[in-house]
Structures are given as C-alpha cells and as structure tokens.
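so i finally got all the pieces together for this one. its two components total, 560 residues if u count the protein bits. some of the lines might not be protein, just check the labels. i wanna see the whole assembly predicted at once instead of chain by chain like last time, that was a mess tbh
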Amino acid sequence: MNLYSVRAIYMFEMARTWRTLLQSVATPVISTSLYFVVFGSAIGSRMVDIDGVSYGAYIIPGLIMLTLLMQSISNASFGIYMPKFSGTIYEVLSAPISYVEIVLGYVGAAATKSVILGLIILITATFFVDYRIDHPIWMFSFLVLTSITFSFLGFVIGIWADGFEKLQIVPMMIVTPLVFLGGTFYSIDMLPSFWQGVTLLNPVVYLVSGFRWSFYGVSDVHIAVSTGMTFGFLVLFIALVWWIFKTGYKLKS
Amino acid sequence: MPPIISVQGLNKTYASGFEALKNLDLDINTGEIFALLGPNGAGKTTLISIICGIANPTRGTVTADGHDILTDFRQARAKIGLVPQELATDAFETVWATVNFSRGLFGKAPNPAHLEKILRQLSLWDKRNSKIKALSGGMKRRVMIAKALSHEPKILFLDEPTAGVDVELRRDMWEMVRGLREQGVTIILTTHYIEEAEEMADRIGVISNGEIILVEEKTALMRKLGKKQLTLSLREPLANVPDSLAAMPLTLSEDGRELNYNFDTEQEHSGISELLKELDSQGVEFRDLRTRESSLEDIFVGLVHGQ
C-alpha cells in the first residue's frame, strides 16, 4: 500500500472541498434547513404524528439521506470527472499506484465530505425541530456506510460521464425522485396497497427506513432488510468499479 | 550497461482497428538524450503512453530500469517522469501545492528542499504561491516539468516539450535538459522541431507508421545520410544550364545567378572538379562559392518520404 499516494489524492480532494466551501457545504446545509423550517416548524405543527413521531422530526432522517446520496454521488463523480476533463488524469494513471489506492483516495474523500455534511445538517436540525436518536451507533454506521456506498456509485458515474450534463442526470433525474418517493416525507403505510408494493421496488425506501429506525425505532421494513440492502448496494458498486479498472473502461485506451 | 528502457515486440491496436504500433523494438541507453522524430500520427505519443502506463499494450513487453511495466508497475513507474504534450494543469491549485501533490502521488515522502531546488531551477520559485490559472503558457509548461521531476525520476519523457514555446524559453529548456542529463537522468523527447533534436540529442530514432525505421547516433546519422550542396554565385546570369552539364545534378536559381550542385559527402568521387573544369571551359565565371551540409530536417523528410 502506497500511503503517500492515497494521502496525496485524499488531501487534494479535501482541499477542493475547502476551496469551494460555499458551494460544497453551505449550499446543501441551507437547502436542507429550508425543509426543516417549512415542514418542521411551519407546516409540521399542523400535521398529525406518524408512528408516534412528530412530522418535523419524522422527515429528518429522509432529508439527511437525500443530502448524503446527492452529495456522495456528485462529489465522487466530480472528483474523478474533473481530471478526465482537464487532462490531469495522465498523472494519476502514470503514478506507481494500484487501482485500490486510487479508489481509496477519491472515494474516501467524497465519503468523508458526505459524513461531515450529514453531521452538520443533524446539528442544524436541532435549531428547528425536536428529535431524538435511539440508536446512535447504528445511526452513525448507516451515515458512514451510505456515504461510502454512494461515493462508489458517484465514482462510476464520473468515469462513465463524458460531459457535465451526464454528471447531473443521475442525481437530479434518478436519485431525487427516488428519495422523494421513497418514504422521506411519509410512511409507506399511508399509501394504497398497490403503491406500497410498487414503492418496495424503490431501493431508497430501504435506506431511509433503516436510517429512520436508528432515530426513532420505527421502520417501514425490517432493519435487517435495510442493512442487507445497503451492503448489497455497496457490493454492487464496488463490483462496477472493479470492472472499470479491470477493463480500463473509459480510462485507458 | 543494460538499456534503461527496453521495448520488445510492442504492438498497439486501437478498438477502431487502427494499428498504432507494429512490432516495435527500441532500447534507450542509460544517461542519454534520445530524440524520437516522426510525423503526426506516427505513434510517438502512443509509445510514450504505453511506457508510462496511460495506455495498455496489445502485445509485447517493456521494461524500465529492469522492471516490467505491467507486472512490476510500481517499481517501473516510480522511475519515470512524464511531461505530456497537452497542457493539463489544476487551474485552481497553487504551484507549490501541485508539485507537492505530484511528489506524494508518486509515493515519495515530502521533501520541501528538493521541490524548492526544482522550482528555482525552472524559475518558478517566485510563483510558488500563485494559482496555476494565473500563469502564462510557458510557465504552465514549466510547472508540468516541475511536477514530472518532483519525485526524482531516473527517466524523463518530454512529449513535444517546446511546442508553442518562444525561442528564448526554448533555449532555457534545452539548457535545463542538458543539466538533467549531467545529473544522470535519461531523457526521451519527441519533437517536431528538427532543430531541437539536432541541438540536443545523442541518438535519434525515426518513427513512421508505427514502426521505428531508423535509430542512429546523431553525428553518425548526419554523416551517413548527409548530403552537401555547393552553391556558385555567377558573375553573369545564365538563361539555362549549359547542355554539356545537363547530366549533372544541377539546378539554376530563378534569376539565373546561382547554380546549385548536390553531392554526397560519403562518395569517393564528388564530381566537383569536373564541374568546375567544365564551367571554366564554357566560360562561365563565378564570384563566390559556398557549401552547405544538409540538416536533419532534410534527412528526415527524405527518410519518411522515401519509405
């Protein structure tokens, strides 16, 4: 293991985060806070509790999950797409490092940033909503695992994308709808039974449900299923990354 | 001493079916400056990309300092520094941050003293805290060289190092490359400027259509393929070449005031004395004469076209 190399990539990526603090940290924190204000403090007080949890508190896990997914994907994809776009990827490819080390650097930095963001949002939420965390270790584990998993997906997207537009397509057109329809704002019990079945095809349901369980001990699907699904995604995305490096897909001619 | 880079039977066929390299063999000697010449699309950049790990070979083996570039890539790549043709830099990074990054990326422990030495050598020390986007093109080129040197490579690839660089900077760069060779770095450069190869290289390889068509010591190459041209400035202009000289390789300038005679320095018999005698008997007088050796450029054009 070439630790200097991993550190170089990791520090480079983290430096990019601090350099663009407003865009990379302030923007997601502010936009998520708006949800807390509107649905938590304002509208939330008129809504009935769900599963014994006040509406403002109920949506917190889903909203954090939304941020984690969006930020992990966009961070990791941007991180590897930029060197491809600017041409500086030559240096990474010509360096005496293995693919594992490249991935550790890029995915590690993207996941770190998502975890930091998730924690900042969690703290921000205390200003607007009263909530509790029943299983803090589970909560933190889900936070970290989801960040890593979707940073892998972002890495795949960054390698696949050959234009800035494609970088946006997956987070905006796929992830956002899946999160909104994945039980972030409601319990799937509230849906007609047909749509409950359909909803279970949405992978984000399992992520949100498990994460919410770690807060309030209530969930739409069993915690074991959620955990299994999260690891399932992790394995799937790692396999994709492995395939990319094995074949040199879009990286090497 | 074994070659520092050894390329054997290297093939590269792109997905499109284009054969960029065909069974290429090449040895680079330790400590030399090797110039790789060739027209656009000849395979220069493909060859460098494979050696440096940016492209995968289709067939064949390459070793760098005795290490196979595929099975022993860590050792091989750690020895190599690459300055690619395209200016590719991280615009928002500072010069110092980017060379530091490069050194770390190549697995070396931080060494500010070494980086300072490189930046001073390349006249970038004053710019170390500037963002790269604020630098001129020539400075960016030097930043890329500094990055390539940051991990103290034994082998340096310079792909078209002076493309789009002004004359003064080009001289500076040549000076720097010579300095590196004195420190024991082996340098492989590709260039379009024949002048550059002529000025710098110890040996020259010519690549065309994915094949090395010639590798030679520069001086031997120029002697071997060297043609000379004798130019006679005439006292009175001629309308055409006298009939009695028509068999000789003579050309007359447009204004009829200069007569050019091409000859081969390697041949026993240059034919100059016959020419001069015949001119005398024809009553053609000249007021000056000069000879010129053909440049590497003439040799190069001759080779590639003659293929």
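The two ends of chain A are 26 Å apart (CA to CA).
Residues 3-247 of chain A form one domain.
anyway lmk what u think
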